[in-house]
Amino acid sequence: MSADTILIVEDNDDDVALIRRAFKQCKISNDLQFVTDGERAMDYIEGVSPYDDRSAFPFPILVLLDLKLPRKSGLEVLEWMKHKSFLKRLPVVVLTSSKENKDINRAYDLGVNSYLIKPVEFGDLRAIVEQVHLYWVLTNVGPETRGK
Predict the structure, then answer these.
(1) Quick check: pTM over 0.70?
(2) Cis peptide before 143 (omega within 30 of 0)
(3) Is 36 helix (H, G, I), strand (E, B) or coil?
(4) CATH of residue 131
């Protein structure tokens, strides 16, 4: 497993398949970990069972977060993260279909680093994945984020 893991929080199987395909076509070698709901995202990030083995489930360097999730929404995950001091430096990019101003504003109020709308066309998704990787993984000089 790579030390440079990207956690992708997405509940739609079709979107998961498209995101995987986009990363593969862009030849991005980061380890991708997927969870399907907000509670699992919180468990993964915090490193609790079943995600307590950090060699199998490394602390992510970046989180791609959908907002419309079962169990806990993406906004609830952001709210939870805001109150965890060890997560203050973890970059989070929202990748969602919601164009609602209330969701956009709330996500930024909760500290999201970027808010992106899921495109309809695969080529556009591929371009977003490439840009996110180029900026957040390769270009951006971020602070140390060790997690727990």
Answers:
(1) yes
(2) no
(3) coil
(4) 3.40.50.2300
Q: pLDDT 10s per residue in the chain (148 long)?
A: 445 999 999 999 999 999 999 999 999 999 999 999 999 999 999 999 999 999 999 999 999 999 999 999 999 999 999 999 889 889 999 999 999 999 999 999 999 999 999 999 999 999 999 999 998 888 877 767 656 5
Residue 47, in any domain of the structure = yes
Q: How is residue 121 written in tokens?
A: 């066309």
Please state the domain count of the chain: 1
In a domain, 107, yes or no: yes
Terminal Cα-to-Cα distance of the chain (whole angstroms) = 18
- 89, 92, 98, 104, 137 from 142: Cα distances, Å: 8, 12, 27, 23, 9
| Domain-embedded: residue 37 | yes
**Which residue matches tokens 């907002």?**
67
Tell me the residue range of the domain where 39 lies: 5-139
CB–CB of 34/10 below 8 Å?
yes
Note the helical H segments in 83-144. 101-109, 122-132
Q: Residue 72 and residue 39: Cα distance in Å, rounded?
A: 6
Residue 85 within any structural domain of the chain: yes
